[in-house]
């Protein structure tokens, strides 16, 4: 037989790599902004058209590239930032993989203009689908202008997968804010469809935060500063009174790079212990510097997750520092600095000896608690099988060793046959857990589950939609019609599709698959109600209100009998939620009675 193995042609390899690096316009924005910063720019402009779908252009005044480098920069694994493997452990730049430009050029029309300050002339390169179309000398300003047009033009499936302009713009603004917050000394400009969105002058950190989040932020900020051998922390937390109902203004930067860390978040939140209302989230802008050889930022292609060498120490220090500052600024009533800091970690080892193994943050970037849930046409049903191993662990803690997770999994499988739930007064579900019992408010619990499910399907995934056999025409007042019209795109991302808008009616031809036809009217009415109650906030879309409203309307109500299987599924689905303890409106869902408390009741 003849040989059949071939090397993939470069443009195919680049397209495949692009899938990893570029998920949406915001990914391109992140890569280009980071390149501009690596090039030493002091002024960076970002121009967008149609949420970046038509154009993303980044203009910088950095060091530019030579003609050869300009051409090289589009080759895969072409980077000026590392020369040997050891350099990886001592990175001071954002980039290092040398994949971004090659990937972007594989899936868009790209035009690069660049000039080094010492040269007379610059270079202009046009490239599309990895093919160089032209390269010439031009006169251009010092620095680099990179224009990315028609993203995913050659991968229609990816292009169609993009969300509405509102959603994609939100993602871009998130990236932009992160970069701008990480570099307050750099001036940034953001224009979208020729409108100025941000004009940020070079400034200090406090000014930058205020420039992005508004003047009101100024009085809320409590400074944080701490320096030790292994860690420097600086930045701000917002006073507890200004904590948010929604998560959002929570930023960690490690060595000037935005990161996500549920572990460090836990440290900060626990420093606010007793100061926050139920369900409130503290805002924070925290900048950690650690020696670059003690972290590994290379564990995720989009590079927002970091592995630290001394996680536990960082945790304790961060918690203590935040606590201390809150105390100094007189916002914490009681403080105890002398407590044993080993108690400050969120571990819950069930008495097992795990001292030798390194704890692992169980963050799976692709984790999607909804993926396996079956979308229901019925009002109340849960999927038959849920990941049983996750619920208890999510409740007590989200951080465990891998072995422990394994152990739990087996424990649960054995336990399952005997595990029982009971419904009480058609209102609560009682379930036993290893450490005691939990009482769960059935309606609020279901609200939480539906809320997260809706939010996920609206903002992250393609929403599941069902086409109606016969379109439904519903009457509304003209002002209500106007509101529905303004949130049309958002409703569409939730799975609605509309046929005709008149002055006093709307015809609906598709609805989210988790909604029944008979509920369309009430769902929209409730939503209009909730939107009217909302404080208008131009910066946010109505997604959150929408998800809350839908969840509230569709959740199983108090007074409904549910079967044992449904009870179990309710419990399991609840504990797969990101925030199982509070309802979307901030009410408490769960009451736990530990064995010790039970014993106390009976004096046994
Ligand atoms: P990486 O940033 O990981 O090195 P990229 O594909 O993002 O990989 O960029 C490849 C190379 O192109 C960079 O290493 C850098 O030398 C050069 N480059 C990219 N953007 C710019 C820019 N705006 N200014 C100067 N050089 C740039
Ligand atoms: Mg780069």
Distance between the termini: 79 Å
CATH architecture of the largest domain: 2-Layer Sandwich
Helix content bin: 25-40%
Strand tally: 24
Radius of gyration: 26 Å
**CATH H-level superfamily title of the largest domain:** Histidine kinase-like ATPase, C-terminal domain
Q: Name the hetero compounds present.
A: adenosine-5'-diphosphate, magnesium ion
Report strand order across the widest sheet: 5-4-3-6-2-1-7-8
The stretches of 5 or more residues where confidence is low (pLDDT under 50) are: 332-417
**Helix run count:** 18
CATH class of the largest domain: Alpha Beta
Q: Averaging pLDDT over every residue, what do you get?
A: 79
Shape: globular
Biggest sheet, in brief? 8 strands, mixed
- Our count of domains comes out at 3
Could you explain the architecture of this structure?
The protein is α+β, with helices and mostly antiparallel strands and 604 residues long. The chain is built from 18 helices and 24 strands. β22 (497-501) and β23 (505-512) form a beta hairpin. The protein is globular, with a radius of gyration of 26 Å. It starts with 9 loop residues before the first helix and ends with a helix. Residues 332-417 have low confidence and may be disordered. Bound molecules: adenosine-5'-diphosphate and magnesium ion. Magnesium ion binds at residues 31, 34-35, 95, 100. Adenosine-5'-diphosphate is lined by residues 31, 35-36, 39, 60, 62-65, 73, 78-81, 95-102, 144.
């Amino acid at each position: 037989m003849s040989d059949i193995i071939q090397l993939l042609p470069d443009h195919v390899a680049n397209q495949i790599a692009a899938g990893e690096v570029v998920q949406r316009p915001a990914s391109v924005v992140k890569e280009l902004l980071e390149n501009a910063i690596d090039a030493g720019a002091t002024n960076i402009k970002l121009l967008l058209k149609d949420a970046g779908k038509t154009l993303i252009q980044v203009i910088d005044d950095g060091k530019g590239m030579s003609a050869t480098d300009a051409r090289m920069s589009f080759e895969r694994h072409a980077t000026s930032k590392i020369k040997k493997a050891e350099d990886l452990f001592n990175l001071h730049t954002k980039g290092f993989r040398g994949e971004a430009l090659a990937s972007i050029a594989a899936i868009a029309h790209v035009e690069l203009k660049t000039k080094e300050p010492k040269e007379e002339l610059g270079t202009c390169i046009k490239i599309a689908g990895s093919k160089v179309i032209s390269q010439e000398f031009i006169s251009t300003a010092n620095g680099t202008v990179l224009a990315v047009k028609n993203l995913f033009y050659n991968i229609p499936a990816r292009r169609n997968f993009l969300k509405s302009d509102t959603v994609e713009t939100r993602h871009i603004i998130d990236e932009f804010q992160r970069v701008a917050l990480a570099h307050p000394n750099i001036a940034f400009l953001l224009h979208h469809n020729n409108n100025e969105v941000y004009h940020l002058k070079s400034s200090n950190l406090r000014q930058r935060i205020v420039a992005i989040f508004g003047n009101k932020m100024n009085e809320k900020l409590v400074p944080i500063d701490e320096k030790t051998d292994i860690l420097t922390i600086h930045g701000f937390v917002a006073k507890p009174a200004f904590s948010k109902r929604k998560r959002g203004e929570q930023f960690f930067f490690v060595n000037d790079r935005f990161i996500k860390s549920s572990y460090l978040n836990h440290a900060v939140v626990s420093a606010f212990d007793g100061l926050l209302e139920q369900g409130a989230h503290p805002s924070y802008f925290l900048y950690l510097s650690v020696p670059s050889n003690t972290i590994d930022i290379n564990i995720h292609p989009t590079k927002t997750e970091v592995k630290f060498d001394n996680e536990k120490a960082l945790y304790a220090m961060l918690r203590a520092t935040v606590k201390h500052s809150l105390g100094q600024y007189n916002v914490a009533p009681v403080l105890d600095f002398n407590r044993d800091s080993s108690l400050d970690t969120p571990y819950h080892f069930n008495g097992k000896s795990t001292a030798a193994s390194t704890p692992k943050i169980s963050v799976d970037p692709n984790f999607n608690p909804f993926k396996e849930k079956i979308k229901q046409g019925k009002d109340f049903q849960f999927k038959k099988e849920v990941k049983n191993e996750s619920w208890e662990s999510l409740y007590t803690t989200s951080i465990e060793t891998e072995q422990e997770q394994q152990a739990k999994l087996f424990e649960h499988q054995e336990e399952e046959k005997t595990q029982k739930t009971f419904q009480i007064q058609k209102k609560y579900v009682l379930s036993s857990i290893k450490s005691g019992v939990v009482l769960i408010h059935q309606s609020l619990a279901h609200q939480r589950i539906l809320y997260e499910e809706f939010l996920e399907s609206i903002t992250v995934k393609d929403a599941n939609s069902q086409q109606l056999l016969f379109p439904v025409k519903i009457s509304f007042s003209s002002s209500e019609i106007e509101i529905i019209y303004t949130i049309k795109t958002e409703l569409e991302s939730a799975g609605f599709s509309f046929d005709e808008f008149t002055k006093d009616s709307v015809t609906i031809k598709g609805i989210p698959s988790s909604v029944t036809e008979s509920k369309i009217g009430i769902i929209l009415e409730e939503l209009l109600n909730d939107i009217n109650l909302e404080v208008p906030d131009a910066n946010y879309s109505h997604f959150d209100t929408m998800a809350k409203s839908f969840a509230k309307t569709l959740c199983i109500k108090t007074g409904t009998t549910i079967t044992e299987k449904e009870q179990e599924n309710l419990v399991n689905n609840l504990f797969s939620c990101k925030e199982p303890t509070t309802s979307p409106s901030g009410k408490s869902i769960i009451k736990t009675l530990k064995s010790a408390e039970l014993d106390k009741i009976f004096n046994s």
